[in-house]
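Chains adopt folds. We examine one example:
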Amino acid sequence: MAIRVLLVDDQPLLRTGFRMILEAEQDLAVVGEAGDGLQALDQVRALQPDVVLMDIRMPRMDGVEATRQITGPERDGPAKVLVLTTFDLDEYVVEALKAGASGFLLKDAPAGELVQAIRVVAAGEAMLAPSITRRLLDKYATHLPSGEEPVPDTLHTLTDREVEVLKLVARGLSNAEIAADLFVSETTVKTHVGHVLTKLGLRDRVQAAVYAYESGLVRPGAQ
């Protein structure tokens, strides 16, 4: 069955462009559009999309609050949120990720990257572009704790290797890149990532990356 996509952006021209790109793919179906966060909530309830392509800055209700309501505990369906941001990396993207977004994509990304991102998110994975993720978290480090706060108790539940893996996830590395860095198999890395998410009560790699910064495990700007 086709992946059902809801387009949320206050610029009709952009929505039209996204629709044209996505409807050219046999496994993607645009089921609706919305021009602000409130409309998005109504459309999610009515249309039950698999993926919501969500803009950040919109009238009435922004993408952060809409994401929080769509992915929160009172959610009405299985929709995943893929946040759209500008080339300059919108300062609210960190908040959107913390609110429950499964990843983010630049608005000027190539068509193929947009299509692949939607497929990845629909499959339950997180959309992390390594260089962009690192740049985003470092750029908006002032929105995160300084790292001088006490280390959360939950972090102590991880083994030394799981901590290593979490640090690399926070840097935006893929499973294959982590495997190469630690000289282990991708299957082993996937197992470690699963353990990290379970022990810390996190949903995906995006939340794991934010957690690593918030806990002080990874310092903004550190290599």
